[in-house]
Design brief:
The structure holds two protein chains of two kinds. Chain A is of the alpha/beta class. Chain A has 15 helices and nine strands. Chain A starts with 6 loop residues before the first helix and ends in a 9-residue tail after the last helix. The longest helix of chain B is centred in the N-terminal third of the chain and has 18 residues. Chain B is globular and about 35 Å long. The chains are: A alpha/beta, B mainly alpha.
Chain lengths: ~300, ~130
């Protein structure tokens, strides 16, 4: 089974890919592999949903096939299309090959995932797609087969590992959820976020890493329009590093705040509170012996 | 109060009974659990160490929870499930075996399940902190 016989083995395999999973996520990913069920991951943007699929593909030595969803996506973008230019050339050349046969089929991500045994299929941001496309996915996820009228039924020899992500901009259908294992990914706590930074950015000094992580943890308690995710934390730290800073200072924190916060209202709010004050508070709360937790 | 006869069942059947009861309790608690979810939970239990509370917790979470607003309900009912306490709190908050009219069959209301974890094992709180 994809080389992993226990939850701990799988977690170690993902850690080798510099993706740290807690026990909950490790268990659900293990079960998705074992049971062959699609895994629906929800959570705020930036918590690492997409990254998990990439890391899992690397950890299982499987190809990653990604279907990015968007409003208006349809079967021709997701499943297959016909290679019309090649069909025209065939007609002009007077060839005898059937025009509507597998030879002229363009495999889109869903079909491609059936052709590559054991692939990891990432269906990213499904909440962006229309209801009709979600309904179409139901059949695909149930049978792992597709029917192309001119070609016939195409079924996977080995079903893909399916990871579906959603940012919950809308509720997905119950029918689709029933076909999936489910996990809600939270923002990591300070300790875990530091561990992620250490794994992802080993060249960053511990002082800068702990300062920025504590600062970001504090921001997440402020009920911002869009809380920064781990991805933003990593970018923010890289920003300090690129500017040659070994530690966080209020001026650089202000100048690069746009790396962390992407909404004008959030930026104004943090600046009006005073970045230096937030920094001081976050350092105090992350200090050893602090018992109060984050507000 | 324990399910009549449950302790005499073979371990596999005892686990199956507990898992189905757990699914039903979650349904009463407001989660839209289906027979399919219960099947997934049972299949998941076959793949993990059922004596580990946190692993069973996350297996059930993967099978039954479908949105973040269901997590708290799931957590509360799981705690009762694991500790062998009555799964369905009654209207008066009593835990002495009163029936809940919404549950069908003979085993409902304040009925408790057999302890799910191994005897003598340390209990593991849901936050991961181990206690004796």
């Amino acid at each position: 089974m994809r080389g992993y016989n226990s939850i701990d083995e799988l977690r170690a395999g993902l850690t080798n890919q510099r993706y740290l999973v807690d026990e909950g996520l490790g268990t659900v990913v293990f079960l998705a592999l074992k049971l062959g069920r699609p895994l629906l991951l929800e959570g705020e943007p930036g918590v690492g949903k997409t990254e998990l699929a990439k890391s899992l593909a690397a950890a299982t030595n499987a190809p990653l096939i990604r279907l990015q969803c968007y409003e208006g996506i349809d079967v021709h973008h997701a499943l297959y299309d016909w290679d019309y230019p090649r069909q025209l050339l065939q007609l002009r050349a007077g060839g005898t090959t059937q025009l509507y046969s597998a030879e002229f089929l363009l495999r889109r991500p869903l079909l491609e995932s059936l052709a590559q045994p054991g692939a990891v299929l990432l269906i990213d941001e499904l909440d962006r797609a229309d209801d009709e496309f979600e309904a179409f996915l139901l059949e695909f996820l149930s049978e792992f087969q597709v029917t192309i009228p001119e070609v016939g039924v195409i079924k996977a020899d080995e079903p893909p590992i399916v990871i579906i992500t959603s940012n919950r901009t809308r509720d997905l259908h119950e029918a689709l959820k029933r076909r999936c294992l489910y996990h809600w990914i939270e923002h990591p706590d300070l300790e875990r976020e530091l561990a992620i930074v250490r794994a992802r950015l080993p060249h960053i000094g511990p002082h800068l890493a702990s300062q920025v992580c504590a600062f970001v943890q504090d921001l997440r308690w402020l009920d911002l329009y869009r809380s920064p995710g781990v991805g933003e934390t990593l970018d923010y730290i890289e920003g300090f590093h690129a500017l040659g800073r070994q530690q966080m200072d209020p001026q650089t924190a202000d100048q690069t705040l746009g790396v962390l916060l992407k909404e004008r209202d959030d930026l104004d709010r943090i600046r009006s509170q005073g970045i230096d004050k937030i920094m001081a508070r976050s350092q105090e709360q992350s200090a050893p012996g602090w018992q109060g937790g984050y507000r | 109060m324990r399910l009549a006869g449950a302790v005499q069942l073979p371990p596999e059947e005892s686990i199956m009974l507990a898992a189905v009861q757990f699914g039903r309790a979650l349904r009463v608690g407001g989660l839209c659990t289906s027979v399919d979810s219960e099947n997934v939970f049972l299949r998941a239990l076959a793949e993990i160490d059922v004596r580990e509370a946190t692993t069973v917790y996350w297996a059930g979470h993967a099978a039954f929870v479908k949105s973040p607003d269901q997590i708290e309900t799931y957590k509360i009912i799981f705690e009762r499930f694991w500790e062998g306490r009555p799964l369905i709190p009654t209207a008066r908050g009593s835990e002495h075996g009163e029936s809940d009219a919404r549950m069908g069959g003979s085993h409902h209301g304040g009925e408790a399940l057999p302890q799910f974890g191994g005897k003598g094992k340390e209990k593991v709180a849901l936050d991961g902190e181990k206690t004796r």
